[in-house]
Amino acid sequence: MITALLASVAPIALLIALGWELRRRKVLSDPFWAQAERLSYYILLPALFVHGLATAKLDGLPIKAMVATLVCSTTIVALLVLATRRTAGVGNPAFTSIFQGGIRFNNYVGISAAAGLLGAQGVALAAVANAAIIPTVNVLCVLVFARYGNIGQLSLKNVLKQLALNPLVVASVLGIALKATDFPLPGVFEQVLKSLGQASLPLGLLCVGAALDFGAARSWMRPTIFASIFKFALMPLVTVLACHLFALSGPAATAAIIFQALPTASSSYIMARQLGGDAPLMAGIIAVQTVVAGISLPASVLLFTSWI
């Protein structure tokens, strides 16, 4: 189990390190990274979400119980992060990074870990987890950015407009709608979406690495620890309680805990950059959580699955 989990985390850390080295050595000019971030946010990540959700194989799975468990636990932890905002001792843009670090998840690591531990069934359960958590966290994060990001406080009308136009939210809704209606993606179109989605992982992680500023590492520590307590301790604990509440057990419960114990996603950095968050802090949280996940993810899965 530990080997499979470590194998899913290691490539993420290496890609972040490569991005940092490329930026340090000036292999690519600075304007490239800003354009790469926009490409990821508006094209590659939406393609990933649409394809992954529309083509998920969900037959014979405890979908309702698993979705209820994941949505409930994610929402509760999000509310806890908001309730302790003043305790974090940071400004509003930095708080958006803490919020994302506390609730977002790296679905690449999750799919790899679930497949490594649970085989083909794990891949199907990972699809359910993605369908439940992706739209939930994206809606929650857009709302938090609307309140605390540098784009300023927005009216209800403008918040709804932000949600309706956010490419990640739109992609999540579209993918779920395609799956719910059993509308098949045309073969060529599906391959294009799949290829674009696959490109989002390496490019997004390279951008995260390029944004790292180790000279500011000391300022990361408090917010990173704050976010990681929610992500690696409270999130899986609340998920265990939700599993009992919704009678979720067996492999489905294991998959739920895996996904709720993951490090935050590289898309967090892209969203922070585009919606007025603290992007350098977000890059630091992603990097630290990815490294820490090498220990915390196996520990969380071993501990919390024993409580189901």
Automatic annotation (TrEMBL):
The chain crosses the membrane at residues 39-58, 65-83, 123-146, 158-178, 198-217, 284-307. GO terms for biological process: transmembrane transport. InterPro entries: Mem_transp_PIN-like, Na+/solute_symporter_sf. It holds the Pfam family Mem_trans. Its main location: membrane. The keyword Membrane applies. It is found in: Cell membrane. Gene3D superfamilies: 1.20.1530.20. It comes from the Bacteria. It is a multi-pass membrane protein. Keywords: Cell membrane, Membrane, Transmembrane, Transmembrane helix, Transport. GO terms for cellular component: plasma membrane. Belongs to the auxin efflux carrier (TC 2.A.69) family. This is Transporter.
